[in-house]
Amino acid sequence: MKKQQLRLTVLCLLLAVCSQFPAQAGVIIAINHTKWAINRFSVDDTPGIDIIGPYQGGGGGCCYSVPAKWKPGMTVRVDWETGEASMKGFPGYADYEKYLAWVKKMDAYTRQHSQVVPVPDYTGQRTCGITVHFLPCDQVKVTT
Fold this sequence. Notes:
Keywords: Signal. By secondary structure, this protein is α+β, with helices and mostly antiparallel strands. The protein has helices at residues 2-18, 96-107; strands at residues 26-32, 37-43, 46-47, 57-64, 75-83, 111-118, 130-135, 139-143. A hairpin with a 3-residue loop joins β7 (130-135) and β8 (139-143).
């Protein structure tokens, strides 16, 4: 009898603990609506993996979960780096000095960004990860 009570207690504890975890884990997807490359990005320190070219999509970082229930005022922090997307003017590697000058020029276009953005209400919707939309003027928006 005591073993059955112990098993039942452990089962109840496991169910209680598991019910506190976020909804389904999914990937971090990104859509770049700008002329700049997104060299790297993360959502609440979870990396999105891919470099995303201008007007393209990507991402694939695993595993990001939003809480099971949406609450007013929910936000996420998006960190990202933008840079020049083209290889225009690439001199090759033969002339190392020209190559270094080109790298310096490309690095001058690189910018770091960070923004806290609201998470839209997803009550009654199936969620599986998060999508980050990189918008012009260094703005971001997220959807679930």
